[in-house]
Design brief:
Helix content: 40-55%
CATH superfamily of one domain: Conserved hypothetical protein from pyrococcus furiosus pfu- 392566-001, ParB domain
Oligomer: single chain
Order of helices and strands: EEEEHEEHEHHHHHHHHHHH
Radius of gyration: 25 Å
Structural class: alpha/beta
CATH architecture of one domain: Alpha-Beta Complex
Distance between the termini: 70 Å
């Protein structure tokens, strides 16, 4: 795109949209491959099969679209086109067509999210992007939310996801050994259990659904001996895997059923959260994750207070429906 472009990306998730980004891009120009940097590639997954497919495309059709780059500190960094760059290097190409963008590194990261809003970044890639803006660029969580056009709670969740995930698990995703969704499932486990579960996932090539089942079973028991026995069962293949095929469809429920289910869910989740907080000190998750969890817990207090006021309002004697002992006249 020439000149000034105004774009609004599709949703990064079902509820998160990328904010407007205004940039200037130059006319396409040729540049030596050796001059192109790819430090921002750490925020993206790049599977070998995708690079192979891109190499085949370049061989058959040549370069169909220029890379998007920006200048920083005397170097030229790629924002969009990492697969094309790596495929070109494998082919021994010396030059590629690029468009230079007039934007900062922070804007480049936001643009990266915008460029891939349609195809969608994985939750892990979103977490890497948020963590980079938070740690490397020093933006606050509200500032990141404003840049990405999303809610600050979404930013907090993505940040907590990558902070709570063992580096070994993240490295396995980058190497293509574990699916991103499986890694997200493993993030539900304490860090001390992630390595053992990761070993089972990779050695037995568990699917995402099987990984979710493993995590659910481990999360459902607090006894270390029971967890060890469960891990041994999964490692030996004795544990029953998730059945193949689509998940069963949910039945249609009435509003009363949904409300009753929500009440039961709040009871269950509140009790579980209280037990976890008492059993596992926040410091065990690492300083950054502990700080994020503490902030989230503080933010939960007014929500619970509002819910308490609402419960009091809707259960007053005037609004309460008293049970009747007289027979119905209907």
């Amino acid at each position: 795109m020439d000149g000034v472009t105004h774009q609004h990306g599709a949703a990064m998730t079902g509820r998160v949209s990328v904010a407007f980004v205004t940039t200037h891009t130059s006319e396409p120009q040729m540049i030596r491959v050796t001059e192109l940097g790819e430090t921002l590639s750490a925020l993206r997954l790049c599977e070998p099969s995708a690079v192979d497919a891109m190499r085949a495309s370049l061989t058959r059709h040549g370069q169909l679209a220029p890379l998007v780059v920006f200048d920083e500190g005397g170097s030229t960094e790629v924002v969009d086109g990492f697969k094309r760059l790596r495929a070109a290097r494998r082919l021994g190409w010396t030059h590629l067509s690029v468009r230079r963008g007039d934007f900062s590194r922070i804007d480049a990261k936001v643009r990266l999210a915008l460029l891939h809003a349609g195809s969608g970044l994985t939750e892990l890639e979103q977490g890497w992007l948020v963590r980079s803006l938070y740690r490397d660029d020093g933006l606050s969580q509200p500032a990141i939310a404003e840049r990405l056009g999303c809610h600050k709670t979404w930013v907090c969740r993505r940040l907590m996801l990558v902070e709570a995930l063992e580096p070994e698990v993240q490295a396995s995703v980058r190497l293509g050994l574990v699916a991103p969704r499986a890694a997200v499932a493993l993030a539900a486990l304490p860090r001390g259990n992630q390595a053992a579960a990761l070993d089972i996932v990779t050695r037995r090539a568990l699917t995402v659904r099987q990984t979710e089942l493993l995590v659910a079973q481990l999360g459902g028991c607090d006894d270390a001996a029971v967890q060890s026995a469960l891990l041994e069962q999964w490692a030996s293949g004795a544990a029953a895997p998730a059945p193949p095929g689509p998940r069963p469809t949910r039945t249609v429920r009435s509003e009363a059923d949904v409300t009753a289910a929500d009440i039961a869910t709040v009871h269950r989740v509140a009790a579980r959260l209280q037990a976890r907080l008492l059993a596992t000190p926040l410091r065990t998750f690492g300083p950054t994750a502990a700080q994020l969890m503490a902030e989230s817990l503080h933010a939960l207090q007014p929500v619970l207070a509002a819910l308490d006021r609402t419960i009091g309002a809707v259960t007053t004697p005037r609004g309460r429906i008293e049970p009747s002992n007289s027979p119905s006249t209907a």
